[in-house]
Amino acid sequence: MNRLQAARAAMVALSALGMIWTSTPALAANYGTAGSTAYVLEGPNEPTTTPNVPGGGTIYQAKPADLDVTYLSQAGSNGSFQWTYEVKNVGQVTASNVTVMKNAVRNDFHGHIESDIAYETLGTIAAGAKKNVVVSCAPKFQQPPCSASSVSMAPANNDPNPGNDWDTSPINYP
Q: Is the pTM of this model over 0.85?
């Protein structure tokens, strides 16, 4: 008796699976039914519909442009300095209209601080590509000496990692 109940339960389960299979459009496209029988209409290995893909209909979404600013080096003498920075697109999409703000800081370390700010347009930076930016500072009459610099995205970039959109040089003490 238990075997008959198990066989009956198995037949009910298989029938339910068959109904689900034949009533699902993406799966049933190649199959037809007649009564309680399902049969192949076309080649079962040839898809007839495109499955519903989550995420707005795309399977792969590239990371947006992510601009990373890194301090590289310093050169100079007699109070003039040139600081070199690298702006690299670590994202997977090209960054367009890239502009940076260059800031040369003058500090006499006695309360007199000034900034020389300039903007530089770098244009387009492809994914994985990089461009160098040089910040220059020369002595000026009756102004504090050059002491440090920074480079930041201008305006702030709406990339996935805003924490890497700027960097600063070490401080030069007079």
A: no
Count of CA atoms in the C-beta half-sphere (13 A) of 55: 6
- Taking the CB of residue 46, how many other CB atoms lie within 10 A of it? 8
Backbone phi, psi, residue 7, to 5°: -65, -40
pLDDT at res. 39: 58
Mind listing the domains of the chain with CATH numbers?
2-40 (no CATH), 67-168 (2.60.40.10)
pLDDT given at position 104 = 94
DSSP H or E stretch at residue 136: strand 130-137
State the Cα angle at 120 between 119 and 121, rounded to 5°: 125
Residue 69 and residue 164 in contact, taking contact as beta carbons nearer than 8 Å: yes
Report pLDDT digits (tens) over 46-75: 555 555 555 555 556 677 889 999 999 999
CB 87 within 8 A of CB 154: no
Joined tokens for residue 155: 């305006």
